[in-house]
Amino acid sequence: MKRVLCPERLRRVPSQFSWVDQRLVRDGYTARCSVEALALYLFLVTVGDAQGLSYYGDQALERYLKLPAAGVARARVELVRAGLIAYERPVYQVLSLERVLVADNGRDRGSGELSSVASVLRQVLEGG
How many Cβ atoms sit within 10 Å of the Cβ of residue 63? Predict the structure, then answer.
């Protein structure tokens, strides 16, 4: 039985002309992630269902991505820390991208709306 790990962050098809949300590049996620982490992210985006869920095991990921077990584990941790995926073995969930906070005034760069305290604290604690 499928279970969404993070219902408040269900991914949605982006409105721009692109299958992968352009904020991945525009908001600096690609600059903060290793090539291995980005390869895992692309794989999970590709194989995930409508809710972003997939059940590929480590051995399959190692084979498809041509990474050692430790490389898959590092990539997974990196993506979780970046807020791009949720993971509870054996389930991966690709998360919606959160808006990036502009540090000087606490405003959301995309909409001009104030960010929640929880969002600000999460970014500070995660080093974002």
Answer: 11
Residue 125's contacts (CB-CB under 8 Å, 6 or more residues apart) are none
CA 3/CA 55 separation, integer angstroms: 11
Q: 38-75 pLDDT, tens per residue?
A: 999 999 999 999 899 999 999 999 999 999 999 999 99
Which of 57, 32, 36 shows the shortest CA–CA distance to 47? 57
**Helices (H) and strands (E) in the chain — how many of each?**
6, 3
pTM for the structure as a whole: 0.69
**pLDDT tens profile 79-119:** 999 999 999 999 999 999 876 554 444 444 443 334 455 55
Structural domains in the chain?
19-94 (1.10.10.10), 98-128 (no CATH)
CB 30 within 8 A of CB 38: yes
